[in-house]
Design brief:
about 15% helix; about 40% strand; mainly beta; Pnp Oxidase, Chain A; 3 helices; 7-stranded antiparallel sheet
Length: about 190
Amino acid sequence: MTEDRHLVAAPTPPADPPGPQEATRADLRQVMAHFATGVTVLTVGGEHATGMTANAFSSVSLDPPLVLCCVVRTARLHDAILHTGSFGVSVLGAEQEGVARYFADKKRPSGPVQFDQVDWFAGANTGAPLVTDSLAWIECSLREVFDGGDHSIFVGSVLDAGYRPGHALLFFGSGFHQITPPALSA
């Protein structure tokens, strides 16, 4: 008895799918421009006094009260937070776009004299300059530091905080915008 055998070619395996690719810096910048954030000024007082505009800020925990901010390692504020072990956060209101632009300007003076251009008060616990008439403010002691690529992620234990009613300053689409909230409850 003879068997008819047909030779069938084995299927060709599919080409290896491309591996995961990392987004470029430009890709991430474009995507993050579509994420609306509040605008803050982060500060440190004392002999290391400095400040900077930041939108990489978030609450972490209510119990215990923790917040985080991300600061590029090359910023003056980065080492100041490490030296003092504390920082302040001023959440800016809609009318404070000029303050946001001032603390984003790398040409502003360094040290305590940079605060001569804005109204501020010293935080009772840390001495960090807090922007007068900001929507909210927080004073923190540095709890933990995590590696975040070219940034450090600073987690702060909230020592004190306050707020006032008002309109928010937002950053969206690479520009500043204002938002009026619905009535806030206390």
